């Protein structure tokens, strides 16, 4: 089992989760985060820290696509280990539908 970031993180990018991760397996894109599924130790401490409820275990239905999405971008984006401010307008973006299709950017973030 591993945990993955899903589309509700897009355009919110809360980073509460990265501070509690004991193995630093979060990676930062321009407008979202991902978890490297091969580095995640399945401890689960990140999941309750996410205000957007965007972190899910891969054992939930239909998570295979998100596992591959997280792996793909974790291999090219910089690691992030410190909390930052969420994205501007995050309150309005939290919970919007179809965020992957509408807003996702494949560009890397700044990392640490």
From TrEMBL:
Cofactor (UniProt): [4Fe-4S] cluster; [3Fe-4S] cluster
Superkingdom of source: Bacteria
Gene3D superfamilies registered for this protein in UniProt: 3.30.70.20
Protein name from the UniProt record: Ferredoxin
Signal peptide: none
Native source organism of the sequence: Paracoccus limosus
Matches recorded under InterPro entries: 4Fe4S_Fe-S-bd, 4Fe4S_Fe_S_CS, 7Fe_ferredoxin, Fd_C, FdxA, RnfB_subfamily
Keywords associated with the record: 3Fe-4S, 4Fe-4S, Electron transport, Iron, Iron-sulfur, Metal-binding, Repeat, Transport
């Amino acid at each position: 089992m591993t945990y993955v970031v899903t589309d509700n993180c897009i355009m919110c990018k809360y980073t509460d989760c990265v501070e509690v991760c004991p193995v630093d397996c979060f990676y930062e894109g321009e407008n979202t985060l991902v978890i490297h599924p091969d580095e995640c130790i399945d401890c689960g401490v990140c999941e309750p820290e996410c205000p957007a409820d965007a972190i899910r275990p891969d054992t939930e239905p239909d998570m295979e696509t998100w596992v591959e999405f997280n792996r793909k971008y974790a291999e090219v984006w910089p690691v992030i280990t410190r909390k930052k401010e969420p994205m501007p307008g995050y309150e309005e973006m939290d919970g919007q539908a179809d965020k992957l299709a509408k807003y996702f950017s494949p560009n890397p973030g700044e990392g640490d």
